[in-house]
Amino acid sequence: MQGRVLRAQSGFFRVETDQGIITCTLRGRLKKERQSTDIAVIGDLVDVTPTMPEHGVIEAVLPRRTKLARRAPASKGVWKEDVLAANIDQVFLVFACASPEFSPRMLDRYLVLTEASNLDAVIVANKVDLVGEAEARRMFAPYERLEYPVLYTSAVTGFGIDALRARLAGCISVVTGRSGVGKSSLFNAVQPGLGLAVGAISTALNKGRHTTRVAELIPLDLPGGGYLADTPGIRELGLWRFPKDELALCFREFRPYLGQCYFAGCTHTHEPDCAVRAALARGEITHERYDSYVRLLEGE
What we know:
Blueprint (H helix, E strand, L loop, with lengths): L1 E8 L2 E6 L2 E7 L3 H4 L11 E8 L2 E7 L5 E7 L5 E8 L3 E7 L7 H13 L3 E7 L6 H13 L4 E3 L8 H8 L3 E5 L6 H8 L10 E2 L4 E2 L7 E4 L7 E4 L13 H4 L27 H7 L5 H11 L3
Parallel strand pairs: 3-5, 8-9, 8-11, 9-10, 11-15
Antiparallel strand pairs: 1-2, 1-4, 2-3, 4-5, 6-7, 12-13, 14-15
């Protein structure tokens, strides 16, 4: 039978099938076939053979339609692909307007991750109640100008919850963001009873405690169904060893100027007659976004 992986932990997989949810392990030969990437992750479609009531073995992992992935260190200096979720439609990048303080540079890192994975990103500006809608829109206006969809929400007041719910319906979505930005509270407001852990903000460190320990794909009770992949909180997203010649492509406002520089292989940092830096001087690229690009290029 075929099913979808809802949870993966310590070599055990909860798989949703037409005959219910069963707990599976991997067939031994699969462990030898995929060495450069995760064998099975949440969202994967898999072929399963039942072995006993509510238990089975994963025989094959079907090709992934999409994936949210980064590169992670493995043994002996080798790098492997770290797939966070498979077969997803969109990624919700949740940032708080305050408490913790909004970090545009961190958002830029997440956007590079989604752009590199060819996934649609939806920015969620949460805790609007702490700063007011006008200030929230000012903070995230640069991203709206880049045509990233931005949803303004508050789990406390219910502001924007209906719009968020409509975006989730019928889709397989990943939600991610730093700990403490209110992801769990927000999605509990979308669907009461989801049971996502709600963590308190550490006022001493101004960082949230990690409340979600295992990635899980949660079925949604919405029109058209849908799933939500709740991922462990990330305080700092260190970009994997990203190919430097591909980084500029992940900044969508750079793309109209790529290939127009005088020098082939231009890094857009110091070379003369650089089309990207000329656009920066004309105000067509913001200094904040350009600074994020340079810092990522330098490995910061």
